[in-house]
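Per reviewer request, we include the raw input and output of the structure prediction for the construct analysed in the revised manuscript.
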Amino acid sequence: MPLLTRRQGLLLPWASALAAVGCGWLPREALVPMPVIHLRAAAQRRADVLVVMLPGAYSLPREFIDHGFVTRLQQRYAVDVTIADAHLGYAENGTLLERLHDDVLAPAQREGYRRIWLVGISLGGFASLGLLMRQPEAIEGVLTIAPYVGPPELLRQVSAAGGATAYSAAPHRDDDLQAELWVWLGRSSPALRDKIHLYTGSDDRLIAGQRLLEALLAADHVLEVAGDHDWPAWNTLWSRWLTRAPWPHA
């Protein structure tokens, strides 16, 4: 399946959709190549596992560091970390998945990483699922934290159809990335869905779409804690994940 190259921003009002669920505004230029931060677990060698962190639509990559995600991760597990600046500008100009593939995933594979995990928050969760859709053989697993999974109208359509499986059986446009994701989710094998873990807050603003996604996943791949669409809940969820992540211990 080809990587996304269409200008999805012309087809779907990403900024309006995310603003409707309460995200803030932090306009930044969609640079090429996409900026990344690399943090190795050990200075002298490459770890077996690479964890790629993808922030929310308007978040800065350093927020993963400032909120202790990276420190807590590398204290417990022998993994390398890449944080990509995959902000809303790339979704708006239609290059989000293209840049993540070309500037993050492909270089990691060339460097020798064979176990690649994606950790995405909000829009980063959507990007993680999109990359898994495009490159399932290259990604071992995905942790989506409070993911954005589409605008309200699309989610109503999925719900009205009876869920993703039924929704995916009907014809759909091939130029709508968000609808394409739901078609793929509905048609995916159980083994592929087992690569997805969904963690969120019970009062998250995006909970309606997350519950639709939850219906496709094994119960032990889903965790819900008290909290809303913000860092206190995400920190709690991250701490819980770190007690069960399938990575080599430090």
